[in-house]
Specification:
Elements lengths: L12 H4 L6 E6 L4 H11 L4 E8 L4 H9 L6 E6 L4 H5 L4 E4 L11 H20 L6 E4 L4 H15 L7 E4 L1 H14 L11 E3 L6 E3 L12 H12 L1 H8 L7 H18 L4 E8 L7 E9 L2 E5 L8 H26 L2
Parallel strand pairs: 1-2, 1-4, 2-3, 4-5, 5-6
Antiparallel strand pairs: 6-9, 7-8, 9-10, 10-11
Helix pairs in contact: 2-10, 5-6, 6-11
């Protein structure tokens, strides 16, 4: 599901693969299901000169050995255990947090937060002590809470630049693109649907009014579309007999990586991400962001022709998003 020439300003592989500079990418949690799939994709990515795999799982060395059997021009390095985390992160241009507990049906956001807090806290503490902050992409759930938590932790430790911290939400855009194409009998790659607000089953909001090509959908049809999009994790997990989505998520992170490295290389890039943003009535917000080598520049705003019904859905999502953000920050307050 790559974006066509029609929308070539958004994450086109052709433009991104022409990046001149090469970069070091570190996958924290590389032995996890998403981590392994992502690392496989990154192993032969042209703009990655060094791929670093870190995990605390004992299977991590085996994952690195397997990846080493894939011929590639990039250097491959693996690290095991918390004691090696500083070495793994050093000199990295982009760090991806993909470890932790995967969210499955019956597992609440609070459960994921409790389980993944230590992982994100530990990595964030080490990043905060680096002399220069790399781009950081968070995949661990719940993103709505863990990204603000990571930000506060790094800000209190020392090295922190809010422009370089991203919750990776590309999967929401890909799903909306696919669902929109399916509903309208069109090729998904010819469709674009902005997805904003947050990254959860209650805060993901697609803007049908801003879709390309345009469409006339009733409120009932929009609600059905929103509900189906918000249930995609559950739908996939049920089909996988309780297992979480991994392959599509890993692919969405690959697209994020391509865009991030293009930006670091001095090219124009747009990323779907959850970032620090005070323009929408909350301190964090998800959407399409302009990115350069210094990080986030600005987020695309949609002010024209948004329907009253979409505004209602967005307000309800914002209420939940504020609670999610507060929950993440509260974790640090009580310790």
């Amino acid at each position: 599901m790559l974006v066509t020439k029609k929308f070539s300003n958004i994450l086109t592989p052709r433009a991104i693969n022409s990046t001149v500079r090469l970069f070091q990418v570190c996958v924290m949690g590389g032995a996890s299901e998403i981590g392994q799939a992502l690392s496989l994709m990154l192993r032969t990515e042209p703009s990655v000169s060094k791929l670093v795999i870190h995990d605390t799982w004992e299977t991590a060395p085996g994952v690195v050995i397997e990846l080493s059997h894939i011929p590639a021009k990039s250097t491959l390095k693996g690290y095991l255990g918390e004691a090696t985390m500083k070495q793994a992160l050093g000199s990295s241009d982009l760090v991806l947090l993909v470890g932790g507990l995967l969210k499955t049906p019956g597992v609440s956001g609070k459960t994921c937060l409790d389980a993944n807090t230590e992982f994100v806290k530990t990595v964030s503490s080490h990043i905060g002590r680096l002399s220069k902050m790399p781009f950081v992409g968070v995949v661990a759930e719940p993103i709505n809470s863990l990204v603000p938590m990571a930000a506060e932790l790094m800000r209190n430790i020392g090295t922190f630049d809010s422009r370089k911290l991203f919750g990776i939400t590309t999967i929401d855009w890909l799903r909306a693109q696919t669902l929109f194409g399916t509903h309208h009998g069109m090729a998904p790659e010819d469709c674009f649907v902005p997805v904003i607000c947050g990254h959860s089953n209650k805060t993901t909001v697609p803007l049908i009014s801003q879709s390309r090509p345009g469409t006339n959908m009733t409120d009932a049809e929009i609600l059905k579309f929103v509900n189906e999009l918000q249930r995609y994790d559950e739908i996939v997990s049920e089909a996988k007999h309780g297992k979480s989505p991994t392959v599509s998520v890993a692919y969405s992170v690959l697209l994020f990586v391509r865009g991030a490295l293009a930006a670091l290389g001095g090219r124009r890039a747009q990323l779907h991400a959850y970032v620090e943003n005070n323009d929408f009535g909350t301190s964090y917000f998800s959407g399409l962001v302009q990115v350069d080598s210094n990080g986030v520049k600005e987020m695309t705003r949609y002010t024209n022709d948004i329907s009253q019904y979409e505004c209602q859905i967005l307000e309800e999502a914002l209420d939940q998003l504020r609670k999610d953000i507060a929950m993440g920050k509260k974790v640090l307050e009580v310790e």
